[in-house]
Amino acid sequence: MSSVVGHAAAGVAAYLACNRLSDRQSLRAPPVFVFLAICPDLDYLAIWLFHAVPAPRITHSLLFGLTTAASAWLYAKSLRREHPLPTPFLGLLAASLSHPALDLLVGAHPVPLLWPLSDPDLSMPFGVLPSAGRLALGNYYLWRNLLIELVVLLPALAVIVAAARRVPFRAVAIPALAVAPIWWVFLAWSIGLHR
């Protein structure tokens, strides 16, 4: 699975792709996008507190992502009269579906993406992102993998945000070319990690 930091970054990117920071109303929306990006891992509470292992982890399905995004959108619409909260449905859906997408890109564990339509979980034969690692402050691999994940993920998310905002190619090309060599090295490192 991807780290909570990576998932939160994807939620922020979904927010930035469809909202302007200059819009004061939209400044209350990032927590909604971040929550949608991390909420599929709330099933870990059942694992940690009750030692219950849900199988399949339906919180990582497209259906769960669609349901949570629709619920957040309907809730935001109900607030619009008194306190408008700009939350475009496609942005909320992108935040929600970013979670299973990132977990799929780790390649370490299968994801029940098509549940309930299909029983077999989907997996990739290799990982593009590193696994989060055991959550312990002294765990070297946690910090190493977090660094690799952020160096691989943040530039990709920045390009997605720039494309969604229709930033001119010239404005993106030079920073992208400057970051590309480092990005490629970290991507190769990530793909080469033992899963």
Number of spatially distinct domains: 1
Number of helices: 7
Estimated structural class: mainly alpha
Q: Percent range for helical residues? A: 55-70%
GO molecular function: hydrolase activity
Keywords: Hydrolase, Membrane, Transmembrane, Transmembrane helix
Organism: Luteimonas gilva
Protein name: Metal-dependent hydrolase
Q: Overview of this structure, please?
A:
The protein has 195 residues and is mostly helical. The protein has one domain (4-192). The protein is 60% helix and 0% strand. It contains 7 helices and no strands. Helix 1 (4-18) crosses helix 2 (30-38). The chain is globular, with a radius of gyration of 18 Å. The model has no long low-confidence stretch (mean pLDDT 90).
Topology at a glance:
Elements lengths: L3 H15 L11 H9 L4 H8 L11 H18 L9 H18 L33 H25 L4 H24 L3
Keywords: Hydrolase, Membrane, Transmembrane, Transmembrane helix
GO molecular function: hydrolase activity
Protein name: Metal-dependent hydrolase
Keywords, please?
membrane, mainly alpha, 7 helices, transmembrane, hydrolase activity
Give a quick summary of the entry:
With about 200 residues, this protein is an all-alpha fold. The protein has one domain. It contains seven helices and no strands.
